[in-house]
C-alpha cells in the first residue's frame, strides 16, 4: 500500500494543479514544528518566484482546493507555508487498511530478486570472539529485512578454512603426534572417523603453532609446505582438514544458534578454490592483469580517484593466492550458482579498501554483471568504557560465548532480584531479555560507528534499550489478555491526542523500514520502535483503556494496542529477538 506521505503529497500536488500551478510544488514533508502541525508544504515559496506572485496568495489558493474532510486543520500561514493536521477519519481509514493488509501493506520491493548476504566470516579452528558479534547480528538483521521486503535471501557465512592456519595446525599436530596415519605417505586404508583431537585441544594447537611460526623459521616453512600439500589434495591432510571442519562448524553452530543467527550456506574459501585457475586465465586472456615485482596484479585505479587505489593483487610473487583472489573466485561461484542481483558484505570497516579493489576488479573483469549491486558495510568496533577495544580483565580478546554468558548472568540476577517471573520461567525469560539487551545495544548504533559496550545501560528496563522495548510489548500483551479476543477489532477514529499520536507513529512503519533497507541500517528500525514504544506508553498512561465504560470506544483502544503490538513484534523479529510472556 502507498505510504501515507505519498498519499498526502499526491492530494497536495493535485490541489496545486487545480489552483493553476505545477504539481511539482506540492511536495509534503513531516513537520519540523510538531507543536504547530503534523505535515507541511513549502512549495508556495518556490512557486512564487516562477509565477511572480506572493507566496501567501498561492498558499491560500491551494488550500481552497484541498478536501477539508481529510484534515483537522489546513491553513496557509505567512510567508506562504501550508500547515496540515490529518483528520481522525483519514487516519482511521489508513490504519484499518494497514491492519488488514498482508505484512501491514509493505511493498515487496525485492520481489523476484536475489541477494547474498556475506556475514559471519569466522576462521575455523579458532573460537568465535567478540569481534564476530557485530558481523553476525548486523548481517542477520539485514538479511531478515531484505527477506521481509520480498527478496530471496541467502546468508553465506564464508568460512576462512583454506589458509595458512590449516597448515599451522597440521604442522603442529605432526610434531606432537608424528605416528598418526595421516602423516604416513604410504598409508592406503580408511582414515579414522573420529578426530585425533577435541575442540578444546584444537583451540590450543593453533595459537601454539602461530607463536612457534614467529620464532622458528623451519617450522614456518613446514606450515607453508603443509598448506600447499593440503590445497594440492594430499589425502592425509585432507582427512585432518575434514576433522577440523566438523569440530569447528559444530562449535560455531551452537554459538550462532544461541544468538538466533542462521546461515543458509556454510561455504568457505575451500569451495571457491577450484574456480581460481579458470578465473585467472580469463583475466589474463582479457589483458587485464600485469606482472609487478613478480606478482600478478590487476590495476583498478580510476581517473576520478581522489586518493590512491593500489592494484588488486591476484597472485603473490611466491605463486600463492590471497584474500582478493578467493573473494573474486567466490563471486564467480555465487554468480554461477545463485545469480544474485546484489551481494552485501559485512566486515570490519578496516577492510574498506580491500573491497573497493575487489569490487572494481569484479566489474572490470566481467565476473559480475553490470547491473549486479555490490555493497560493503564496514562496521566499527565494540569498545569498553575506556573507549578502547573491549578486552577481558586479563587484557585478552573475549570469547563470544563468554560475552553472551556474562550478559545472561547479569540479566538473570536482575530477573531474580526483582522477582519478575516465577522460578520455572526464569531461564527462558532471562535468555530473551539478555538477547534483546545485547542485540539492541549493538544495533541501535549506526553500523559504521564505534560504540561503548555498557552492560548496565544495555540491560536497563528504561530508556532506549532492548528490555524497554520488550517491557512495552509485554505490557500491551497483558492489556490484550485481560480484554479477551481482540484480533478482529477494527481501528477507530482517535478519541484523544494520545491515541492520534500513536496512530501517527504507526504510519511511519513502512517509511522507517524502507529507509533502513536503502541505507543498510538496522539502527533506523531501533529508532522507530523506540519512538513507537514511547507513544504507546504515553497512550497507556493517559488513557483508561480497560476502565473505559463506552464499549465501542474501548474496542477501538484495544484494536490500536493490538496493531501496535504486532508492529513492535515484527520489528523485533527483524532485529533478531522476541519478547517473553511476562516481564
Tally the beta strands. 13
Give the strand content: 5-15%
Cα Rg: 29 Å
Helix content: 40-55%
The helix count comes to 21
Provide the low-confidence segments as ranges. none
Shape: globular
Give the strand order, joined by hyphens, for the main sheet. 1-2-4-3
Mean pLDDT: 96
The secondary structure category is: alpha/beta
Could you describe the largest sheet, including whether it forms a barrel? 4 strands, antiparallel
Quote the distance from N terminus to C terminus: 35 Å
Structure description:
This protein is 51% helix and 10% strand. It is of the alpha/beta class and 583 residues long. Among the domains are: 4-86, Gyrase A, domain 2; 164-258, no CATH class. α5 (133-148) links the parallel β5 and β6 (152-156). The protein is globular. 42% of the residues are buried.
Q: TL;DR?
A:
The longest helix has 25 residues, at about 550-575. The protein contains 21 helices and 13 strands.
Summary tags:
583 residues, Gyrase A, domain 2, four-stranded parallel sheet
Explain the layout of strands and helices.
Blueprint: H1 4-18, E1 29-30, E2 39-41, H2 43-51, H3 55-65, E3 71-77, E4 81-86, H4 88-100, E5 114-118, H5 133-148, E6 152-156, H6 164-176, H7 199-215, H8 217-232, H9 235-258, H10 269-272, H11 276-285, E7 290-292, E8 295-298, E9 312-315, H12 323-337, E10 342-348, H13 352-365, E11 373-379, E12 382-383, H14 400-417, H15 426-443, E13 451-452, H16 455-458, H17 466-483, H18 497-506, H19 509-518, H20 523-542, H21 551-575
Parallel strand pairs: 5-6, 5-10, 10-11, 12-13
Antiparallel strand pairs: 1-2, 2-4, 3-4, 7-8, 8-9
Helix pairs in contact: 1-3, 2-3, 4-18, 6-7, 6-8, 7-8, 8-9, 12-13, 14-15, 17-20, 17-21, 18-20, 18-21, 19-20, 20-21
Amino acid at each position: 500500500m502507498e505510504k501515507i506521505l505519498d498519499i498526502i503529497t499526491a492530494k497536495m500536488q493535485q490541489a496545486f494543479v487545480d489552483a493553476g500551478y505545477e504539481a511539482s510544488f506540492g511536495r509534503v514533508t513531516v513537520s519540523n514544528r510538531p507543536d504547530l502541525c503534523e505535515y507541511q508544504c513549502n512549495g508556495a515559496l518556490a512557486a512564487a518566484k516562477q509565477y511572480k506572485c506572493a507566496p501567501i496568495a498561492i498558499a491560500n489558493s491551494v488550500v481552497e482546493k484541498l478536501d477539508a474532510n481529510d484534515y483537522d486543520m489546513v491553513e496557509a500561514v505567512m510567508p506562504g507555508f501550508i500547515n496540515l493536521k490529518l483528520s481522525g477519519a483519514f487516519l482511521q481509514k489508513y490504519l484499518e487498511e494497514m491492519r488488514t493488509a498482508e505484512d501491514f501493506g509493505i511493498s515487496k520491493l525485492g520481489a523476484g530478486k536475489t541477494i547474498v548476504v556475506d556475514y559471519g566470516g569466522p576462521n575455523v579452528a579458532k573460537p568465535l570472539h567478540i569481534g564476530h558479534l557485530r558481523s553476525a547480528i548486523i548481517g542477520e538483521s539485514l538479511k531478515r529485512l531484505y527477506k521481509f521486503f520480498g527478496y530471496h535471501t541467502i546468508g553465506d557465512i564464508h568460512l576462512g578454512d583454506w589458509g595458512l592456519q590449516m597448515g599451522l595446525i597440521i604442522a603442529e599436530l605432526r610434531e606432537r603426534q608424528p605416528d598418526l596415519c595421516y602423516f604416513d605417505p604410504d598409508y592406503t586404508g580408511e582414515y579414522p572417523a573420529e578426530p585425533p583431537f577435541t575442540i578444546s585441544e584444537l583451540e590450543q594447537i593453533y595459537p601454539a603453532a602461530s607463536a612457534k611460526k614467529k620464532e622458528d623459521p623451519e617450522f614456518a616453512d613446514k606450515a607453508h609446505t603443509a598448506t600447499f600439500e593440503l590445497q594440492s589434495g594430499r589425502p592425509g591432510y585432507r582427512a585432518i582438514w575434514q576433522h577440523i571442519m566438523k569440530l569447528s562448524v559444530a562449535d560455531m553452530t551452537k554459538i550462532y544458534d544461541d544468538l538466533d543467527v542462521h546461515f543458509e550456506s556454510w561455504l568457505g574459501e575451500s569451495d571457491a578454490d577450484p574456480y581460481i585457475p579458470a578465473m585467472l586465465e580469463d583475466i589474463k586472456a582479457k589483458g587485464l592483469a600485469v606482472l609487478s615485482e613478480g606478482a600478478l596484479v590487476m590495476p583498478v585505479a580510476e581517473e576520478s580517484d581522489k586518493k590512491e587505489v593500489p592494484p588488486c593483487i591476484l597472485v603473490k610473487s611466491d605463486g600463492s593466492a590471497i584474500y582478493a583472489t578467493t573473494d573474486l573466485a567466490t563471486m564467480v561461484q555465487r554468480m554461477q550458482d545463485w545469480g544474485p542481483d546484489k551481494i552485501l558484505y559485512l566486515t570490519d570497516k578496516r577492510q574498506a579498501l580491500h573491497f573497493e579493489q575487489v569490487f572494481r576488479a569484479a566489474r572490470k573483469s566481467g565476473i559480475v554483471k553490470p547491473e549486479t549491486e555490490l555493497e560493503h558495510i564496514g562496521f566499527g568496533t565494540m569498545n569498553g568504557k575506556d573507549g578502547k577495544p573491549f578486552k577481558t580483565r586479563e587484557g585478552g580478546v573475549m570469547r563470544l560465548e563468554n560475552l553472551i554468558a556474562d550478559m545472561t548472568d547479569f540479566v538473570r540476577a536482575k530477573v531474580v532480584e526483582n522477582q519478575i517471573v516465577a522460578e520455572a520461567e526464569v531461564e527462558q525469560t532471562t535468555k530473551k531479555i539478555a538477547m534483546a539487551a545485547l542485540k539492541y545495544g549493538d544495533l541501535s548504533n549506526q553500523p559504521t560507528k564505534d560504540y561503548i559496550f555498557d552492560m548496565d545501560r544495555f540491560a536497563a528496563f528504561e530508556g532506549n534499550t532492548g528490555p524497554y522495548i520488550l517491557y512495552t510489548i509485554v505490557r500491551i500483551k497483558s492489556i490484550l489478555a485481560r480484554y479477551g479476543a481482540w484480533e478482529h477489532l477494527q481501528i477507530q477514529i482517535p478519541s484523544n491526542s494520545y491515541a492520534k499520536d500513536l496512530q501517527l507513529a504507526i504510519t511511519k512503519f513502512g517509511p522507517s523500514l524502507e529507509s533502513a533497507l536503502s541505507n543498510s541500517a538496522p539502527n533506523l528500525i531501533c529508532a522507530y520502535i523506540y519512538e513507537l514504544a514511547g507513544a504507546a506508553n504515553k497512550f497507556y498512561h493517559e488513557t483508561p483503556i480497560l476502565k473505559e465504560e463506552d464499549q465501542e470506544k474501548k474496542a477501538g483502544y484495544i484494536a490500536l494496542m493490538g496493531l501496535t503490538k504486532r508492529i513492535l513484534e515484527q520489528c523485533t523479529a527483524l532485529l533478531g529477538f522476541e519478547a517473553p510472556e511476562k516481564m
